[in-house]
Automatic annotation (TrEMBL):
<dbReference type="InterPro" id="IPR006264">
    <property type="entry name" value="EPSP_synthase"/>
</dbReference>
<feature type="domain" description="Enolpyruvate transferase">
    <location>
        <begin position="14"/>
        <end position="430"/>
    </location>
</feature>
<dbReference type="InterPro" id="IPR023193">
    <property type="entry name" value="EPSP_synthase_CS"/>
</dbReference>
<feature type="binding site">
    <location>
        <position position="182"/>
    </location>
    <ligand>
        <name>3-phosphoshikimate</name>
    </ligand>
</feature>
<feature type="binding site">
    <location>
        <position position="28"/>
    </location>
    <ligand>
        <name>3-phosphoshikimate</name>
    </ligand>
</feature>
<keyword id="KW-0963">Cytoplasm</keyword>
<keyword id="KW-0808">Transferase</keyword>
<feature type="binding site">
    <location>
        <position position="137"/>
    </location>
    <ligand>
        <name>phosphoenolpyruvate</name>
    </ligand>
</feature>
<feature type="binding site">
    <location>
        <position position="184"/>
    </location>
    <ligand>
        <name>phosphoenolpyruvate</name>
    </ligand>
</feature>
<protein>
    <recommendedName>
        <fullName>3-phosphoshikimate 1-carboxyvinyltransferase</fullName>
        <ecNumber>2.5.1.19</ecNumber>
    </recommendedName>
</protein>
<feature type="binding site">
    <location>
        <position position="33"/>
    </location>
    <ligand>
        <name>3-phosphoshikimate</name>
    </ligand>
</feature>
<feature type="active site" description="Proton acceptor">
    <location>
        <position position="326"/>
    </location>
</feature>
<feature type="binding site">
    <location>
        <position position="184"/>
    </location>
    <ligand>
        <name>3-phosphoshikimate</name>
    </ligand>
</feature>
<keyword id="KW-0057">Aromatic amino acid biosynthesis</keyword>
<dbReference type="InterPro" id="IPR013792">
    <property type="entry name" value="RNA3'P_cycl/enolpyr_Trfase_a/b"/>
</dbReference>
<comment type="subunit">
    <text>Monomer.</text>
</comment>
<feature type="binding site">
    <location>
        <position position="29"/>
    </location>
    <ligand>
        <name>3-phosphoshikimate</name>
    </ligand>
</feature>
Length: 440
């Protein structure tokens, strides 16, 4: 499978406090949920301000392979004609339904966890593949759940790639899973649940689930689309069968990606503002406001614009990031620009993200002169980075973003494979340059 292009990027050093306003593109998590929901709807839907990036392109291609149609003729929006309907869900997109459709998940967790249950519901034979690095991401929970729902999955795999087939769709009913490795197992099954003939009752039986806000996001977007979904306690969800109406929705800015730019204000003692910050949101990235305050920055949200103002020094922090693991690389980068000892914990599940992020951060921060201890589910950053080096990014967009923040604090950070940032932000280096040029 194709990987992003290799390239080397000298991360710019801040010569003065950064002062800028940055308009951040749409949220990956919301865009890919809306695409999945548009595919299961009974009528066309329009998504305004969608994120256009590798992960969302892969999601659009995936639903197209399953029989939906995507119209991108109007800039800044996509209109999706859903999967074809049958009484019990969807029908095969080909007349015979015998040819396998092909889905490429790339390295996108949302595609690899949201598409398989949806694909099973179409009744088609579907081959699900991805980047070689995606083969290491946890999939066993989803594969076991689908097998329990009667879906045939070959070979006897516990990870990508595999082929699935459930002629006649999926009956549904009660499923028990252990989603402690990723909230996306819950989100993926819930999003497809309305296509199952009997709907779905999903019970999480394992330890705590990471990234809770992403489950809230799934439930809220489903309800807004008109799907009946009930949450009972912390671990049980019920989805009623039946396809929702079409919808029109505008995607919020990606707050986790916004955190990278806000971090620039913290580490340079400048000010960065992000407009269109939602007053209420299920995006975990909203938690960066609190993290910024913990780092000692001033935080002001007024008239829908969030401004972070960094002060002279950056405070060390102790933060539980279990709910917002995707903020870890950038938070670690800010912490590694601070003088004191920081501890980031509750992040063991990040070993199953794009790369083992604990190992990756530990290795690269150490390379830049920081003293770091890697624990099973935590990182302790004892002392800050001191010098630049070639920074490996491991096909992880957020390692590129972390490197960019570090590059502001120390000379000569050179980012290997900067193009990998296109997973969620193809325009990252341009936006970064614009921010450093003080664009407002
Ligand atoms: O559902 C989603 O959109 C996501 C859920 C989270 O995954 P995990 O629960 O695997 O951490 C998050 O880290 C990821 O970036 C996006
Ligand atoms: C974990 C992440 O992505 P994915 O959706 O691929 O899991 C992330 O973006 O930080």
């Amino acid at each position: 499978m194709t990987q992003p292009t290799t390239s080397l990027w000298p991360a710019p050093r801040a010569t003065a406090p950064v002062r800028a306003t940055v308009t951040v593109p749409g949220s990956k998590s919301l865009t890919n949920r809306y695409i999945a929901l548009a595919a299961v709807a009974s009528e066309p839907s329009t998504i305004m301000n969608p994120l256009i990036s590798r992960d969302t392109e892969l999601m659009l291609a995936a639903i197209t392979a399953l029989g939906a149609a995507v119209d991108r003729s109007t800039p800044g929006q996509v209109t999706i004609t859903p999967l074809p309907a049958t009484a019990s869900g969807t029908k095969p997109a080909t007349a015979s339904g015998t040819d396998a459709a092909a889905v490429d998940c790339g390295l996108a967790g949302t595609v690899m966890r949201f598409i398989p249950p949806l694909a099973a519901a179409t009744g088609r034979k579907v081959r699900i593949d991805g980047d070689t690095q995606a083969y290491a991401r946890p999939m066993d929970t989803m594969i076991t759940a689908l097998r329990g729902l009667g879906v045939d999955i070959t070979p006897g795999a516990a990870s990508l790639p595999f082929e699935l087939h459930s002629p006649g769709g999926v009956r549904g009913g009660r499923v028990e899973i252990d989603a402690s490795a990723s909230s996306q197992f819950i989100s993926g099954l819930l999003l497809a649940g309305c296509l199952f003939a009997d709907g779905l009752t999903l019970v999480h039986t394992g330890e705590s689930v990471p990234s809770r806000p992403h489950i809230d996001m799934t439930v809220e977007t489903m309800r807004r689309a008109g799907i009946e979904v009930q949450a009972t306690g912390d671990d049980t969800w019920t989805v009623a069968p039946g396809r929702p109406h079409g919808f029109t929705v505008t995607v919020e800015p990606d707050l986790s990606n916004a955190a990278t730019f806000l971090a620039a204000a913290i580490v340079t003692g400048g000010q960065v503002c992000v407009p269109h910050w939602p007053a209420q949101t299920t995006q975990g990235g909203d938690a960066f406001r609190q993290l910024a305050a913990d780092f000692g920055a001033r935080v002001a949200l007024a008239d829908g614009t969030l401004c972070i103002t960094g002060l002279e020094s950056v405070a060390a922090i102790d933060a539980d990031l279990s709910a917002v693991g995707e903020l870890t690389p950038v938070t670690a980068a800010v912490a590694a620009c601070a003088a004191g000892k920081s501890r980031l914990h509750g992040i063991g599940h990040l070993r199953g993200h794009e790369t083992d992020r604990l190992a990756a951060l530990s290795a690269e921060l150490t390379k830049l002169g920081a003293r770091v201890t890697e624990h099973a589910d935590a990182l302790t950053i004892h002392s800050p980075v001191t010098h630049g080096a070639a920074f490996e990014t491991y096909h992880d967009h957020r390692m590129v973003m972390a490197a960019a923040v570090l590059g502001l604090c120390i000379d000569a950070v050179e980012v290997i494979d900067v193009g990998t940032v296109a997973k969620t932000m193809p325009e990252f280096t341009q936006l970064w340059a614009g921010m450093l040029a003080g664009e407002r």
